[in-house]
Amino acid sequence: MTVVPKSRIVVGAAALAGLAALGGVGAVLNNDTHSATGATRFDVTEVVTTTSPPDNSALTKLMKMLPAGFDASNCAVVDNPPRDSLATVDCEQNSLPNGPTSGRFSLYPDEATLETHFQTAASEDQILPCPGGPASASNWQYAESPNEPAGKVVCGTYEGTPDLVWSQNDKLLLGNLQGTDVQSIYDFWSNNTI
Known about the structure:
Number of helices: 4
Shape: globular
Order of helices and strands: EHEEHEEEHEEEEEH
Radius of gyration: 26 Å
Number of strands: 11
Strand content: 25-35%
């Protein structure tokens, strides 16, 4: 049992409060007024460690990458994000005319992890040809570098809803859009995200 003299209580309590506010250490103090010297004594009986709140820099970065018509007004952080994601948001109806009905966007730590999650998402879809593309996941490129894959894209339906999933390697972004038909979400993706 640790005994803290009364003169140090103010400093000790302030230090503990500061540490607890920073996510460090908190303690429960018991007041024991029955000491041999007659001084008030406090015993530290429990120490609790806490973790710091998650770093919001990944979420801030992700929010800046969202396609036009998605922002903080129609997107919210996912409570139970996909394994390995640094940040994930679910978005409701896009604010642009004829925009997607919903979207999910995740930021990953590296290309290998991004590729794994793209493959998982693509495997959950009933694959359909993207407009002008093959009936399977395929590479897409930026116009300024047509010979370098920038990521992958796949079109299909998820539980009967038209769906488009893409990876964007330079941003480590995985996007998933749903809408009323494959053509409209493909047009939105090609005009507003790449």
